[in-house]
Amino acid sequence: MEELDDPFSGDFEFAPRRLPDRALLQRRPRAPAEEIIYLASEDDLTAVRERMERATTRNIVLVVPPQTQLLSHVGWRLLRARAQELGKDVVVISSDRQIRSVAKAAGLKVADSLEFAPRSTSRRPRKNPS
Torsions phi, psi of 120, nearest 5? Predict the structure, then answer.
């Protein structure tokens, strides 16, 4: 019988299999589902809009102190309109009933503490099966 060349014989070397680094195997942290923005009492409408625009997540929680400059219905409506333009879901958290009332009347979701804040879920509109 004729001998066949053994493909595993010869002068070449097999490189040892390199295992991935443990750090690479660990799960990467996920981006937060929501961004919490704590407002200062001196923050005005422009400052809040800029902070919303810089937010990297779709879901934003605005924590508003009772001594805020954002007391007008018009201001809250402008914030809601800008949030819609940016594609952001905003929840307003405040211990002040008046602030919650005005924000809610402007069309925003509200809560009196982070514990009871409604969790925003991004819902995509369903396509109508035709």
Answer: -75, 135
Residues in contact with 28: Cβ distance below 8 Å, sequence separation at least 6, in sequence order = none
On whether residue 36 sits in a domain, the answer given is yes
Beta strand 59-63 with 109-111 is unpaired
Per residue in 58-96, pLDDT (tens digit) is 999 999 998 888 888 999 999 999 999 999 999 999 998
**Residue 110: pLDDT band with limits 50, 70, 90:** very high
The pTM of the full predicted model, rounded to 2 decimals, is 0.64
Helix 73-86 to helix 97-105 angle, to the nearest 10 degrees? 60
Q: What is the CATH number of the domain that holds 39?
A: 3.30.750.24
**C-alpha distances out from residue 52 to 15, 40, 119, Å:** 52, 14, 17
Place of tokens 């369903």: 126
Kindly state whether residue 25 falls inside one of the protein's structural domains. no
| Alpha helix segments (H runs only) across the chain | 22-25, 45-54, 73-86, 97-105
Question: For the chain, how many structural domains are there in total?
Answer: 1
